Amino acid sequence: MDRVSQTTRTAAADATWVPRATLGSADYASPEVLAEERERIWFGDWICVGRSEEVAEPGRYIVRDIAGESIFVTRNQEGRLRAFYNVCSHRGTRFLDEPVEGDRVRRAFKCPYHAWSFDLDGRLIGTPNVHEDECFERDRHPLYDIAVDEYAGFLFVDLTRDEPRPLLDALTDGAETITAFERYRLDELRIGVRLSYEVEANWKIVVENYNECLHCPTIHPELVELVPLFRFGEVWDEESRDDGNRMADGATSFSRSGSSRLPRFPGLDPDDEHMYYGTFQFPNLMLNLHPDSAMYYILYPRGPAHTTVVSEYLFRPETIADPAFDPSAVVELWDLISKQDWAVCQRAQTGVSSRAFTRGVYPRQDRFLFWFNEQWRARMGRPQLG
Ligand code: FES
Ligand SMILES: [Fe+2]
Q1: Domain of 34?
Q2: Which ligand 1 atom is at minimum distance from the Cα of 91?
Q3: Is 144 in the pocket of ligand 1 (CB under 6 A)?
């Protein structure tokens, strides 16, 4: 993606901004819109579902719910990623549960109903009491497979029925992209902390909240101490590259004190040591980069007014392995910010469902939300508002 032209377009749009309408009440609250989003967005392009390290070796697997579809991702004997619907080819049973500690690696997957089993490539290999000589051809009943790929250690699946487009095309198709940050060597980082939140709000309200900072002075007093620009309701400093934000003088970590006991990432540019970058990758990944750690949110819609937000913190593997590993300074601030955000998202959800509310309004500082809505409208087959 051409970041320069993006910034130029952004700056030009800023100068002539006039207030625009938000999405409508039903877009945030109705089951019908969510049903349409499932086909057009959640099952229509690449969706982030976690990290490659979670399926590091053959037979290690994760189960995910994507807008009501249960799927799982694993690695076959050759080490290649594979993903399947969590649906037995016999009579449709959902056969895998979320793996529990100590049972995350399988040589084969067995359905708990009639004990049919499938290998790591989804081939049907066991059908107790049903024999090949009954004209039953196992080859004809594999698991339903799904496209899966990875970028920078992030796992993506695509439930599109036809041939999906290349992952990289999807990643570089929006206003922002995680591909701008190769110098952070994200593929080498590992999960050190995992938090999960249940937020009673539509997933788009969570995205919109992430992409504006008009709320920062009131909702995040601790955050605006660390990132002074946020005090003015802006989300990025257009003078800096990749829409980064300079942290307060002397700050080198995303923590309340501006410091931490974590070593800095190697190989960053000198300027990065004082910068915070936040990037939204449509539709469900929000990546935050700091000089010593990264944190991302992955969103999973559970209903029109319910989103599960997984928040994971990445560090260098050698940092995690160090007996003195202490991520608490970064986690404490982000966890505080997250809870502050979810509380206002829930409040917003309550209001958009009111019979009084039809649409709200975006002032200039909310312009990124409008662009997110334009992207959403494009995916939903609705006209652009321009
Ligand atoms: S439904 Fe899975 S084995 Fe019968
Ligand atoms: Fe916020």
Answers
A1: 1-43+179-386
A2: 1
A3: no
